[in-house]
Amino acid sequence: MDVDNIHKREKIASKSGDVGYFVEEMAKREYSHLKEASRIDEKILLLQKSTKVLIPQFSFFHNFLRMKYRWYYHWHLRKNSQVIHYVILTIFIILVSTLVLNSYLNK
Predict the structure, then answer these.
(1) In angstroms, rounded to a whole number, what is the distance separating the alpha carbons of residues 52 and 76?
(2) C-beta pairs of 49-53 under 8 Å, 24+ apart in sequence
């Protein structure tokens, strides 16, 4: 809505005595714009988060996979993907350390 249109509406609203309606309408529009801006900000944060890697040496490989495979790209856009990666990494470290320790103790 341009400025001239707003001024016309203000004049009409003040003449008809319905200024409250105009203010409510503008407040509703402002609220909808703020909600849309919030949604866009959330998408931007998800995109930024999806490009991060835990081990910096894997960033080239990670970006290559993101460009090549759609499912890989969408997986990293999920909010919980990083938590799942940490859980899998922790399980892997525990398994490897258990195997190494068991191998060392059996000698």
Answers:
(1) 9
(2) 49/76, 49/82, 50/76, 50/77, 50/81, 52/82
pLDDT tens, 27-77?
888 888 888 998 999 888 888 878 888 788 988 999 899 899 999 989 988
Tokens 């890697």 locate to 53
Spatial separation of the C-alpha atoms in residues 73 and 65, rounded to whole Å: 8
- Strands (DSSP E) contained in 1-107 are none
**46-72 in b/e burial notation, b at 16+ Cβ within 10 A?**
eeeebeeeeeeeeeeebeeebeeeeee
